[in-house]
Amino acid sequence: MSTIELRQVEKKFGDLHAVKPLDLTIQDGEFIVLLGPSGCGKTTTLRMISGLETVSGGTIWLNGRNVTWLHPSARDIAFVFQFYALYPHLTARQNIAFPLQAQGEARETIEKRVDEVVKLLRIEHVLKAHPGQLSGGDQQRVALARALVRRPAAFLMDEPLGALDADFRESMRSEIKRLHVLQHATTVYVTHDQIEAMAMGDRIVVMSAAEIQQIGSPSEVYNDPSNLFVARFIGSPGMNLVKGKYADGIVKMSGLDNNYAVPQAWKGALKKGLADGGEVIVGFRPEAAQINDRGNLVGKVYASEMQGSSAVLHLTINENEIIHIRTDRLIPFPLDTLVHFDINPQMARFFNPKTEAALKPEVTQ
Amino acid sequence: MSHVELDHISKQFPGVTALDDITFDVKDSEFFVLLGPTGAGKTTTLRVIAGLEHQDAGKILFDGETIDDLTPSDRDVALVFQQYSLYPTMSVFDNLAFPLRSPLRHTSKEEIKRKVEETAEKLRITHLLKRKTANLSGGEMQRVSIGRAIVRSPRVFLMDEPLSNLDAKLREALRIELQHLQKTQGSTTLFVTHDQIEALTMADRIAVLNEGRIIQVGTPEDIYDRPASTFVAQLVGSPRINLYPARQENGTVSIKDSDVHLIDAGGSKLPADFLVGIRPESVKPDPKGKFDGQVVLSEPLGVETILHIQSGKSTLLSLVPGIASYHIGDGVKFNIALEHIHYFGMNGNRLQA
Predict the structure, then answer these.
(1) How far apart are CA A40 and CA B337, in angstroms?
(2) Minimal CA separation from B7 to chain A, in Å
(3) Chain B residue with minimal CA distance to A166?
(4) Using one digit for the tens of pLDDT, what is the confidence trace for A25-79?
(5) Which residue, A165, A284, B46, B64, has most beta carbons within 10 Å?
(6) Domains of chain B in sequence order
(7) Is residue A365 very low, low, confident or very high in pLDDT (cuts 50, 70, 90)?
(8) Cα dihedral B85/B87/B88/B92 (nearest 10)
(9) Domain residues of chain A, as ranges?
(10) Max Cα distance, chain B (Å)
(11) How far apart are CA A170 and CA A162, in angstroms?
(12) Is A308 within 8 Å of B179 when comparing Cβ atoms?
């Protein structure tokens, strides 16, 4: 059982802000992901929660207790780095039992707790082996078991899957999430990989330039990014963001003859939310574009990609802007073909290019 | 440009067979990808074509003529590596001009300037021409490396994981541009990668390599839709294909330890024991579905969601569009697209059903 609360927590190195003052409340049992590119402040934030890094300002609360100046070992938090660091001279079972032995637990307790976690992770068959004899995946599971066996109040994980190849990452990703579903230990997980963040997080904290850009569920950060950074960073490819000028219900884009009729629900927001001149950015996910011979918008085929179960078509709409459209795999388009499409009006988003913030639609009754 | 043929190429290193009877051809103007895990022999194949290694047996032909006696420079190939090998003290312009300034080429100053500028424009690095390469970002450096390869017109481009060191967003962007460039220039290209998504998205054809041997050659559709073995089926596709031991009795195919029994799946032609492969997108939740399961995990990726559905003791992965609103523990009915099921023998080879 644990909640974690950060109140105006910040970190400065000299004059440089590694983390600007931020507020974050993590509920008991929640899986929170800190997501952002390298240097955004996510790891520093995690290290401040663990106590490995001191704060320059603000307070950190664990279960309502101010732990800001407590030693890391007094915080009852398990810090999981990349999972590989097992003791090579101990068997898998001895590795898993080690943290409990170090705490001086009774032998029966140790046996019982090790058996529980071993069963949970389905690694009964590797217990007698030494780490060197195990496959990469089994080593990971043993390391994970060793972290779990302590039953800490919270887990902090710093890119634990970073060093793995793509295949392992996928399976360990689901393994960690499955464990979380079973145990509901409060977890703060740091990654730069937006797919990992989406797949694992109950909520995602998107960070950039030492600041929180958005806190939301996977669906919120994907469907309603709060600004251009989040729109670009989440998704593969990211959200299409096309520059244009708004007047009289129409966004005029540069290059090909593209005049986009703004959905009714957004007209008020665009009128109010934009600077004089009406400069706007229209945002839509690749799957929001629907190819349609009589479509309102048009682009020229630049490249097309078969991606397994679906395909992505890349269209140029002027010299500098390429947009991405998700399609069925079956349609082959030669280079330079003009392709017409519409944007699903439910999935259109708009941003103010000056502030980079998303506009909010008017609530229709 | 050129037609490249590898004819029964073998290569031994002390203690290992690096290449074991490799035969394939890269057609003129084709984008050909060698795909395989580490140690498969991809890079060795590339180095043999470049003349940096010499094969123990077999022939290499460019446009029907053997090139085995030619030095690397006489083979007229351009190499792009994962590590950018640029001259850090030179400007981007001079790095791009370098291959043209070789005294043997007799390229005039005006011609060099024209070609460098043309190349820079194609790669969107015109604004960087005066900068020193030491001051560039990783993505910019790799653009310059590619530029240095395409600035002259070699017979063949050989690329060894050129995108591997870049972050995900840059890799995506460069993948598209590389493909566009290759298609507009019509250059014969052999591209090596361990990344299945790079292979599927860029290739005209793919050769899958493992342990020095070619496992399958085909279009991305061939490889994805008709994998020759369980190795290929598992190498390509994300999330990974569902692969289970199965039995057939009286024409009904049953996945072991599960509640999935497929009637009319062409089972009568199958042996008693085999492996069944089902791509996650072929497992389709449907309120009227024939099979029952329970959602044990849901991974929303954005454009689609991976559902882990437990049926009996087996867990099937299902790929559904959008961010699905299933909760863990929900019962779920589903169908399996019978026409997209793959059958493999116990030895891993595809069964022609």
Answers:
(1) 44
(2) 29
(3) B195
(4) 999 999 999 999 989 999 999 999 999 999 999 999 999 999 999 998 888 887 7
(5) A284
(6) 4-235 (3.40.50.300), 242-344 (2.40.50.140)
(7) very low
(8) -100
(9) 4-231, 240-351
(10) 78
(11) 11
(12) no
Global ipTM: 0.90
Outline where A122-217 has alpha helix (H).
136-148, 166-183, 194-200
CA distance B240 to chain A (A): 8
Best B126, B137, B176 member to test A by mutation, with max A CBs in 10 Å, is B176
Q: Please tell me the pTM assigned to this model.
A: 0.91
Q: Which residues of A touch B (CB under 8 A)?
A: 37, 165-167, 170, 173-174, 177-178, 181, 192-195, 198-200, 218-219, 222-223, 232-238, 285-287, 302-303, 305-309, 312, 314, 322, 326, 329, 335
Average pLDDT over residues B203-218: 97
Separation in Å, CA of B283 to nearest CA in chain A: 12
The H-assigned helical ranges of A186-310 are: 194-200, 218-223, 228-233, 264-273
CATH T-level fold of A240-351? OB fold (Dihydrolipoamide Acetyltransferase, E2P) (2.40.50)
Tell me the per-residue pLDDT of B102-147, one tens digit each, with 9 for 90 and over.
Answer: 877 788 999 999 999 999 988 889 999 999 988 888 888 888 988 8
Using the Cβ of B319 and the Cβ atoms of chain A, whether some distance falls under 8 Å is answered with: yes
Q: A4-231: what CATH class?
A: alpha beta
**Chain A nearest C-alpha distance from B322 (Å):** 9
Distance in angstroms (rounded) separating the CA atoms of residues A61 and A49: 9
- Give the closest residue to A309 by CA, choosing from B241, B300, B236, B281: B281
Distance CA A333, CA A313 (A): 8
d(CA A68, CA A34): 20
Strand order across the A211-216 sheet: A77-80, A154-158, A186-191, A31-35, A203-208, A211-216
Q: Which residues of B touch A322 (CB under 8 A)?
A: 176
